[in-house]
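In the previous chapter we treated chains in isolation. Here, by contrast, the input contains two separate entities that must be folded as one system, with a combined length of 960 residues.
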Amino acid sequence: MSDEKKLTSRSQDYSAWYNEVVQRAELADYAPVRGCMVVRPYGTALWENVQGGLDRRFKETGHQNALFPLLIPMSFLSKEAEHVEGFSPELAVVTHGGGKELEEPLVVRPTSETVIGHMYSKWIRSYRDLPVLINQWGNVVRWEMRTRLFLRTAEFYWQEGHTAHATSEDAQEETMRMLDVYADFAIADAAIPVVKGRKSESEKFAGAEASYSIEAMMGNKWALQAGTSHFFGQRFARAFDIQYLDHNNELQYCWTTSWGVSTRMVGAIIMAHGDDQGLRLPPVLAPYQVVIVPIWRKEEEQAAVLEATERIAAELRPHYRVKVDAREEVTPGFKFNEWEMRGVPLRVEIGPRDVKKESVVLARRDVPGREGKSFHPMGGVVSWVGDMLDDIQAAMLADATAFRDANMHEARTLDELRAIVADGWAKAYWCGDPACEARIKEETKATNRCIPLDQEDWGPHTCVVCGQPAEEWSHWARAY
Amino acid sequence: MSDEKKLTSRSQDYSAWYNEVVQRAELADYAPVRGCMVVRPYGTALWENVQGGLDRRFKETGHQNALFPLLIPMSFLSKEAEHVEGFSPELAVVTHGGGKELEEPLVVRPTSETVIGHMYSKWIRSYRDLPVLINQWGNVVRWEMRTRLFLRTAEFYWQEGHTAHATSEDAQEETMRMLDVYADFAIADAAIPVVKGRKSESEKFAGAEASYSIEAMMGNKWALQAGTSHFFGQRFARAFDIQYLDHNNELQYCWTTSWGVSTRMVGAIIMAHGDDQGLRLPPVLAPYQVVIVPIWRKEEEQAAVLEATERIAAELRPHYRVKVDAREEVTPGFKFNEWEMRGVPLRVEIGPRDVKKESVVLARRDVPGREGKSFHPMGGVVSWVGDMLDDIQAAMLADATAFRDANMHEARTLDELRAIVADGWAKAYWCGDPACEARIKEETKATNRCIPLDQEDWGPHTCVVCGQPAEEWSHWARAY
């Protein structure tokens, strides 16, 4: 239960605000193992809705789910040189099983390219078996030093897609298709206006030839990488011997991809939309879209109010996710605060006078300026609730988009960039030299979030650091 | 793809038949870590349908999902004496994380009573917080020596429900409610006529006061425990200090339960229904309920056949899970064998003559005596396909029930019991003495599957071993 104490405001301490919201809204809690989390029922319901929105899109684009093992032989990771270098410092290692020391230690998967590559080398024989389009929902473990619920935890939940193709073009197309799927989900379902882009060499996935991401702006104007899609070329195919016989009966290496979205997405939703009252959840993903609070003072009022509440709830339930909060041990005011804190988009209040007037009081957890209460007829409730949820969803996206655009500025010098990233995202041309990229990070704490696919031209085409010619610009920001 | 070689028949070698079906139907494969499995897309789709049927029933009975950590401090397991004794030989232990040896080793969860008990002790304060009704979907690891895909693997997938209650009665009611949920799922969705019963002392869960199970008869007349529900009394509440303030403001220990169904259920479905052609899947759970095979010889026939195929598929898709198999590199006969092997309930064949006659050829993967082909009009296909799926579902349950009943016999002496369990299940009164139970196991290899809740009286009430008075009878069988 959320306690009575007011939340720390975002402007006062954004980080404290985040931690308080996560715990007081009962999204998650700390596990007894350092760096691990417990996702509580409310957080799990939100994550399940994220999963539903993604899984539907995966299936619409021809993917199937499968389940690969949690434990991976240590030797597998070494088969791809960059991959093992990237992941070894983060491994959790099983050395004993069934009371004995193991001959070869097993790692708890930090990601599954290696073991899936091993299986694909067994399964794929001919061009007829391609493409292989498989996704896995599961948990992974990366030993993290500084952790934060949802954003960075030692164990986290995610999906990892792994595909194998006959040609480079097919694999590259898949990489971009899944980036689009992620962006579509983020924008349409999570109401987060993400930017799609390519990762720089220093920021790409360990073992990838090219990595792409969707980047989202949080309420404190930091960036959060909310999903990634990787093109591996033939690197993993060569490391794991994933070959197929082509039309000419000649052996060829496959071209592979992987792509993932994790429980970080829940952190993104919290920080993209939350305010000083707590969570604000986009209706498409909210565990409860409507909460109904019956209100009565005198005992003789109770029956009629509860009867009307149940009637309205029964009308709404086939269409929306509805919660009736008829608890008697807490006041209506307490409930209002609690459901505001927990971000339910619509609150319906029904009191004795409302029953008589055949109307309800409606409170929207909407964008600034559109909150507050209004009266609505009980008749046609299914229809106007639907309209209002659609309207809130659209307003949240518009609001987040306006916020992002207002906090994204062009930097032509390193000084400008430094000033901008103190309170926003900078756009800056960059020559591609890792030394210039490193200098930006060192001097401003901002990292290269991505080189956006949409490279609208706002020249001059010179590197913000060294002044040399620059073909592309990047988004630069402090990031989670 | 299933190869051309015929399956080993069940009568020839049941165990080989099982392994071949699992692999050739592409349900699962062996992982590179000993004892672990890869669940392939077809097996995962079947498991997801199992999950869907169970999850819906969990939510209808008021449960919510949550996610608890994979890694558990070793010391947690020792807090409940029987529990640690039961699980320590099976533990996988993480000793290193982030490149360092850990101060306290972590076990990969073999089950989550301990860590969930720890969280409940933090969350539960008063009677108002009760009951806590939480389920978790996830993976667990138990180091097994002799493994078999789906039936016994080191890592497996399951759900584990964990609930906390104010009274013993509430917890016992929950234990039985979930046993009923499991039986309802098994019977209605999986078409497996399970028996509900109590486990004997020697067969119950490590740490439980009472364990209950649903037991299913496989095609070789062995038994398989397909789900369990445990009443813990206050044991875990005392071990983990799960207390609440009651109405009188006095601290009380909670009463807890846990209940689980795992990927073993997939093994149960394979063995309860499979035949010498391969899988037979109950329509409610089948990944594809209908497969459509277009057939043409001459090129000029192709367009009309494919057009009709797509039209029928489009009609069916909103209602059923449909697969169109239009591969050109394999013959129709190959496809028929393959989809029979993979257990698809209905196969629709559409050839040039069918297109002209506005009809289709239908082949049912039905119970013995009801298979074979028939013609059906293309008109009204949604309706007759639905009727036929319902009919097959019902016939599979009736068939499995008749098989079970025909292979279940009353044993009044140990010799009778020995003879019966060589090829069936024995019903036998037992005095309750573990020594008699152990002797049955030793002499017949049959174990006490359960003491069925439905104790219809078929006396004499004397123990099948020692002849002493016996209040209850058990099912005895060889078991997986």
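Chain B touches chain A through 58 residues (CB under 8 Å). Chain B is about 35% helix and 25% strand. Compare these points with the single-chain example from earlier in the chapter.
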